[in-house]
Design a protein that fits this description.
The protein is of the alpha/beta class and about 240 residues long. It has 11 helices and 8 strands. α3 links the parallel β2 and β3. It is globular and about 70 Å long. The structure holds pyridoxine-5'-phosphate (PXP). Pyridoxine-5'-phosphate binds next to β8 and α10.
């Protein structure tokens, strides 16, 4: 089965928020991702609104023609936003205000009752639910138990690993993927965090069960460099006196 790519456009909004301008617009970025063949668009509505704003999620819902995945903390305020905007699915993530990015997976095994209740509310609104978890069998079993439809394995430890740790982390992800595939109710299997052109190939070889990737920072970073020549050419043209 071919693997789907969902592009996370949060960091386009990070650039916008840095200057308080209306550009660059994450909606324009999402449409460019779709034009290039991305299979879905992902955004993380953080509670501190450091990049994506609720208005962005509303506009993306109207414009995105593929799949809209809303990453969010498992809170009442976020469930209200999701049930109003109705993304195709929601990914529940742990969130700490002081972190630079999502540092670890959600402890589904440690909060089964509350996550089962939130999953039920989202299902009631017609929204599928994914759990962003560490590649651990106990978290996969708990995700199945609370009624999740998808899981996304956190690949940050793999992305940050060096030396012998790389094989260790790939083995861990591969084992988790097989655990899901052979479980009583295998969940749609995604992976993400820290993925790049350099490390994605080995991941997909280690875990062929993965059917979807969420990639943000590396693609937005590449876009800045790949697009720089054209941006400068455009500006030079704008400077020409007629
Ligand atoms: N998946 C989830 C659940 C995330 O929280 C993030 C970061 O927002 C990503 C994927 C994308 O990670 P990266 O920006 O490192 O590609």
């Amino acid at each position: 089965m071919s693997v789907k790519l969902h592009v996370n456009v949060d960091h386009v909004a990070t650039l916008r928020q840095a200057r308080g301008t209306s550009y660059p617009d994450p909606v324009d970025a999402a449409l460019a991702c779709e034009a290039a063949g991305a299979h879905g668009i992902t955004v993380h509505q953080r509670e501190d609104r450091r990049h994506i704003q609720p208005h962005d999620v509303e506009r993306l819902r109207v414009k995105v023609k593929t799949i809209l995945n809303l990453e969010m903390a498992a809170t009442d305020a976020m469930v209200e936003l999701a049930t109003r905007v109705k993304p195709d699915f929601v990914t529940l993530v742990p969130e700490k205000r002081e972190e630079r990015t999502t540092e670890g997976g959600l402890d589904v095994a440690g909060q089964r009752a509350s996550l089962a209740a939130i999953t039920k509310r989202l299902h009631h609104a017609g929204i599928s639910v994914s759990m962003f978890i560490d590649p651990e069998p106990a978290q996969i079993d708990a995700s199945i138990e609370v009624g999740a439809d998808h899981i996304e394995l956190h690949t940050g430890d793999y992305a940050n690993a060096t030396g012998d740790r790389v094989t260790h982390e790939l083995d861990r992800i591969g084992a988790a993927a097989r655990h899901n595939a052979t479980s009583s109710r295998p969940l749609h299997l995604a992976a993400g965090h820290g993925l790049s052109v350099a490390n994605v190939g080995a991941l997909l070889e280690a875990a062929p069960e993965i059917v979807e990737l969420n990639v943000g920072h590396a693609i937005v970073s590449d876009a800045v460099i790949v697009g720089m020549e054209e941006a400068v050419r455009r500006f030079l043209r704008a400077m020409e006196r007629t």
